[in-house]
Amino acid sequence: MKLKLLNAGQNYRIIGGSDRYQFQLAELLTRHGHKVIPFAGKHPDNLPSEWESYFPPAPDFEHPGLWDLTNYVYSRPAKRAMSRLLEKISIDIAHLHIYYGKLTSSILQPLREKGIPIVQTTHEFKLSCPVYTLSCHGELCEKCAGGHYYHAVLQRCNRGSFLRSGLSALESYVSVKNGAIDGVDHFIAVSEFMREKLVSHGLSPNRITAIHNYIDVSGIEVAENEGAYLLYFGRFEANKGIMTLLKAAAMHRDIDLVLVGAGGLEPVMRDYVAQEKLDNVTIRGFMDQASLYEVIKGSVCSIIPSEWYETFGLTSIESFAKGKPVIASRIGGIPEVVEDRVDGFLFEPGNAQELGEYMKWMWENRGAAVTMGKKGRQNVERKFNPEDHYRKLMDVYRKLL
Predict the structure, then answer these.
(1) Residue 66 has pLDDT above 90, yes or no
(2) What residue ranges define each of the domains in the chain, with the CATH number in brackets?
């Protein structure tokens, strides 16, 4: 069965993990003989595509005006662009990712009118939380679950702003009214934890399947070296637990720590490093995939100190792919990936002392860390490989056709 699939998300460039998965999915499906048509918001940094003339103008999130705010909630340009695309080519299945914000729920109506089955991979908790994270001001929170989005306004969940939070809640209410839950035929959660959480919030268990993310390690060489530093790579945001990591680094100043990424927390991080005189900490900027793998290669291990319900922990399998073990928070979907004391260590979220102890163990037992990293690579090859992912994905598609 060869399909024509719409692969829709906000960006046609890699900014985060969901964007990377979109491109991986397109490559995987194309390799199996399917035709994949992308759909995303216009942006000058987008990668080239033969379909880019159908991409709608996207709201400006950095300097928004009234047009941007209106089209963040419901984008008529995106709806028109989707309708125009569907007149051009017949689609068998639409696979959505993070489509809200730049495309919005407006794209659902043209798909439904054409009778196209819709699948969505839930990369975060947008169905239950207007700010996507099931957290508020650094604390876990599920008050909005079940459609009670007004709590986000009362608690000013979006950057402490009443107006931003109100806009986020309004967008959630509008999206649900336009079919963001009932209008999607099937959801794919990236972990069992995520699936169970969304079911507990009211989603029918028959409408959501857990399929873990994957990584193709065929072209990734295992690093045999013991490494010269511990590594964090990912977004610089408070819910990623970076301040807990820096506190642990302050307890163990003989351990070199490198942080790679970008995000709103960076000024706070740099102030803390300067204030505490952490000469053992180096903060580096965003890197492309090739450069990042070189940095992973030079590490002893990677650290994932998240303090929110991490949906999967993509960075963990990227670390394992290079044969490097992982120290990670015992939260969200992470324990489905990192096996405690086998290919890494799990610690209590927010516990800087426990994290510091595992950092010290990795630093002082680098030979054993290499062995753990090799086990991580074996687990990735066995549990998170492309062919298993493709088989499970096709099982979902077939049920809807």
Answers:
(1) no
(2) 4-127+180-214+385-400 (3.40.50.2000), 230-383 (3.40.50.2000)
